[in-house]
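Example S7 (structure tokens).
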């Protein structure tokens, strides 16, 4: 039975995604999982079902779009803090590798901070045609500023 269960990290590696993304899919109900010993486990069968859905990536994207639309419309945010901010930053890159490098720096910064202190969310998209990386950050202004400062370093390169 345990050979039919995968960890978040195993699923992330299989799907070439960050483990944070897999945890978000679990939280948002996109991917079924159960906790065993305090750790999320995903049945191989559930993973196959989710990945075979034609709307798998579309559902995930729509959830992010709804979160941003809710923020813009003044809806209730699940982020804490007296002040909330949202910003969209476009970074024109030389290659997809450069965009991935920037994205990895941002994700590492987000993962390095205690989630109760950062109060921020991010969405990342890359357009192959224009070689444009788009980052959308919303949440605590101080932390959003830290994320933008990472992008600013690439302006000088």
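Recovered sequence:
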């Amino acid at each position: 039975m345990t050979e039919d269960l995968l960890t978040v990290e195993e699923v992330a590696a299989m799907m070439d995604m960050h483990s944070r993304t897999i945890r978000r899919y679990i939280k948002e109900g996109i991917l079924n999982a159960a906790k065993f010993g305090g750790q999320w486990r995903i049945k191989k069968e559930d993973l196959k079902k989710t990945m075979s859905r034609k709307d798998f990536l579309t559902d995930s994207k729509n959830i992010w779009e709804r979160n941003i639309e809710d923020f813009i419309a003044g809806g209730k945010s699940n982020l804490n803090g007296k002040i909330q901010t949202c910003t969209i930053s476009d970074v024109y890159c030389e290659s997809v590798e450069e965009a991935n490098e920037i994205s990895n720096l941002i994700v590492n910064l987000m993962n390095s901070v205690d989630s109760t202190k950062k109060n921020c969310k991010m969405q990342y998209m890359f357009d192959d045609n224009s070689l444009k990386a788009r980052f959308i950050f919303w949440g605590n202004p101080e932390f959003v500023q830290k994320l933008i400062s990472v992008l600013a370093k690439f302006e000088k390169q």
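Notes on this example. Residues 119 and 140 are 5 Å apart (CA to CA).
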